[in-house]
Amino acid sequence: MTGLQGKKILFGVTGSIAVFKAAAWVHALVKEEALVTVIMTRAATRFVSELTFEALTANPVHVEMFGHAVRTPMAHISLARDADCICIAPATANTIARLANGMADDLLATSVLAASGKPVMVFPAMNCNMYMHPATRDNLQRLRELGYIVVEPDAGALACGDEGPGRLPEWDRAREQLLACLCQQDLAGQQVLITAGPTREVLDPARFLSNRSSGKMGFALARTARRRGAKVVLVTGPVSLEDPPGVEVVHVTSAREMYEEVIQRSSQASIIVKSAAVADFRPAQAELHKVKKRSAPDSLALEANPDILAELGRNRHPGQLLVGFAAESRDHQEEAGRKLREKNLDLVVANDISGENTGFGADTNQVTLVDHQGAHPLPLLSKEQAADRIWDHIVTLVAK
Ligand code: PMT
Questions:
Q1: Which of 102, 108, 105, 159 is nearest to 130 (CA)?
Q2: Does 200 lie in the same domain as 133?
């Protein structure tokens, strides 16, 4: 399973005021059970002491290459050899210049040279003028040519008072980059279309019919697919989630809007996953003005919305993989099996919505994967873990 748990990360910290943010990243990594070993440059120890990172990781922090202070035999080789990836954050202009020139003048630079074949991620953080200087731009370009992953800094107010690019990104963006660098790119080359969230069906200017979908499941599918190398388009109903980085997000409100956007994009997609909770019905008439209590009708006339998934199943092109969801509170496998056959799908994710920790709104989910070979129940997982398990299964279907 992909994720940060158990991943060995050699974390290089260099001398910038942004070390305080790096400490928060290391804390977040340890919370996700990554195994973090920190190398600090001497300049970094002027900003915070080794003790900070030792306390956060419960591991010795490495600074020196020679002498009594060396904490591990042959540290300049062994630390990189044991790591799954090297992450340098913050990376100063000086360290970037040293790495670009293949210097081996301290433990961090030497470890990077010794990390043959391991992914090296560089997160520049510095004053905006230093960052935009042609020398730094050239050095960053050289790092890219060497195969290092350079993550652009955020722009904004900097610690020195200037404004511009040079801020270390927030953890969420850094985490995505780290996960993408650590996980297999088994969806590379795939064009994935995902739907998420609820739809809203307008009754009058104040009211609508909708459901409890938060979009969490569909957004987790989009994030994890992007990480695994896919080009992702996410068509989502109204939710209060941030757009996943690197994903093209199309915001819609009603089922009919979702229908238009999905059908229009479907022919370019190699994999379509429909996790949205689309309203089956809409009010037969959307009132122009708010319906007054005194004139409320006794009953509400409804009209059927188009079944997007069924339409996709009728018109799928050869080689396109089509995945539906089925929100069920009972007879999960039977209902999912029926949808699989009736809608001409490759896989149905039967979502148990009977408990508090699963289905609508929850952060965790309990799903069973139903394909033409049978049913594969998964344990209760975070929605991100469930998304990864769904992609694992899809990858096996693609390979068939
Ligand atoms: O968003 P969250 O809070 O994270 O919750 C996740 C979820 C419970 C919404 C999600 O995991 C889920 O189960 N989504 C499908 C919900 C649903 O509408 O199920 P259904 O059995 O009614 O629909 C079956 C399938 O047909 C779904 O793929 C649905 O997208 C699709 N459909 C339904 C109606 C319609 N008019 N058009 C469709 O394409």
A1: 159
A2: no
